[in-house]
Write a structure and sequence with these properties.
It is built from one helix and eleven strands, in the order H-E-E-E-E-E-E-E-E-E-E-E. A hairpin with a 5-residue loop joins strand 9 and strand 10. The termini are far apart. It has a single domain, classed as Lipocalin (Beta Barrel), CATH 2.40.128. The radius of gyration is 18 Å and the shape is globular. By secondary structure, the protein is mostly beta strands.
Length: 151
């Protein structure tokens, strides 16, 4: 007889998780929009797509990039809002920490080891209120702005 209340509880939790995912503006597929971006660091990619899905502690993104020279790179970022740094997986190794400022805004801190020295950079990631545009702005002195359109 205990299985019925447990089954109902599992169904309610699954339903609520689905609703929460629908209310998460960062989830979905985002494609780089060069025309709306202002790239001040490095060469802009030919193409870049983020696929962001729910994950324990927040969500994760898989970022696929085709660089200007035609080479490709795939990375996985774990958006855990626990205040700790988490190692990226894939082609551009670094540690990332994310802080949720509000429903539409996340602050990212990146820590990289470059030639034995630790480099720290910060970015603000914002989704527009209509949920159609994601903007990533550098907070580290340059004016790098990358804009993505939701697909």
């Amino acid at each position: 007889m205990l299985w019925r209340p447990f089954s109902v509880l599992v169904a309610i939790v699954a339903f609520c998780a689905g609703l929460m995912a629908q209310n998460e503006p960062f989830l979905g597929i985002w494609e780089f929009n060069l025309a709306k971006s202002n790239i001040t660091r490095g060469v802009p990619p030919k193409s870049q797509t983020f696929v962001m899905v729910p994950a324990p502690g927040g969500f994760k993104s898989v970022r696929a990039t085709i660089r200007g020279d035609g080479t490709t790179n795939v990375e996985i970022h774990h958006y855990n809002f626990d205040g700790n740094f988490h190692q990226t997986e894939g082609g551009d190794p670094r540690e990332l920490s994310f802080k949720r400022l509000d429903q539409y805004t996340i602050e990212e801190t990146a820590r990289r080891n470059r030639n034995g020295q630790i480099a720290i950079s910060k970015r603000r990631i914002e989704v527009s209120k209509d949920g159609k545009t994601k903007t990533i702005r550098s907070l580290s002195g340059d004016n790098d702005v990358r804009v993505y359109d939701k697909k």
